[in-house]
């Protein structure tokens, strides 16, 4: 009976989690290829994105300390990294909007992912809500 391990077969059902070093490598490889986060979906861009993921796969697998992965696995990991960042931002905003007194936590932290995906942390400028203070003609109005 032959034992199949994750290191020697792609058919194995056991999945190896990405290490933090592998995730940092993926972030750096994606940051070098801005076409990945281009929102246009025409045929040319789709082909360029596929080629970029193939390049990322080759560059990733050329590094000696990583587990060999496919382009699809790397793409899913990147999507998971973005999703986790969106959740972090949502939690930060939620903590600022909580009621109960006291001062909210510090403002939004800057992250490398935010520079790669500028749409991930969109805010609408000039929105007046319950936390907005305006100074009009020397008087303070809280709206």
Automatic annotation (TrEMBL):
<keyword id="KW-0805">Transcription regulation</keyword>
<feature type="domain" description="Myb/SANT-like DNA-binding">
    <location>
        <begin position="16"/>
        <end position="89"/>
    </location>
</feature>
<comment type="function">
    <text>Involved in transvection phenomena (= synapsis-dependent gene expression), where the synaptic pairing of chromosomes carrying genes with which zeste interacts influences the expression of these genes. Zeste binds to DNA and stimulates transcription from a nearby promoter.</text>
</comment>
<keyword id="KW-0804">Transcription</keyword>
<dbReference type="Pfam" id="PF13873">
    <property type="entry name" value="Myb_DNA-bind_5"/>
</dbReference>
<dbReference type="InterPro" id="IPR028002">
    <property type="entry name" value="Myb_DNA-bind_5"/>
</dbReference>
<protein>
    <recommendedName>
        <fullName>Regulatory protein zeste</fullName>
    </recommendedName>
</protein>
<comment type="subunit">
    <text>Self-associates forming complexes of several hundred monomers.</text>
</comment>
């Amino acid at each position: 009976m032959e034992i199949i391990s994750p290191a020697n077969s792609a058919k194995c059902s056991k999945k190896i989690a990405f290490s933090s070093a592998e995730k940092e490598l993926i972030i750096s490889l994606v940051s070098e290829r801005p076409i990945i986060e281009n929102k246009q979906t025409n045929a040319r861009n789709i082909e360029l994105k596929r080629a970029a993921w193939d390049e990322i796969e080759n560059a990733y697998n050329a590094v000696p300390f990583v587990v060999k992965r496919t382009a699809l696995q790397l793409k899913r990991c990147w999507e998971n990294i973005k999703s986790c960042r969106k959740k972090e931002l949502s939690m930060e905003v939620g903590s600022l909007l909580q009621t109960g007194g006291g001062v909210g936590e510090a403002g939004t932290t800057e992250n490398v992912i935010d520079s790669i995906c500028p749409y991930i942390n969109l805010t609408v400028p000039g929105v007046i809500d319950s936390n907005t203070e305006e100074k009009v003609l020397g008087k303070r109005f809280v709206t």
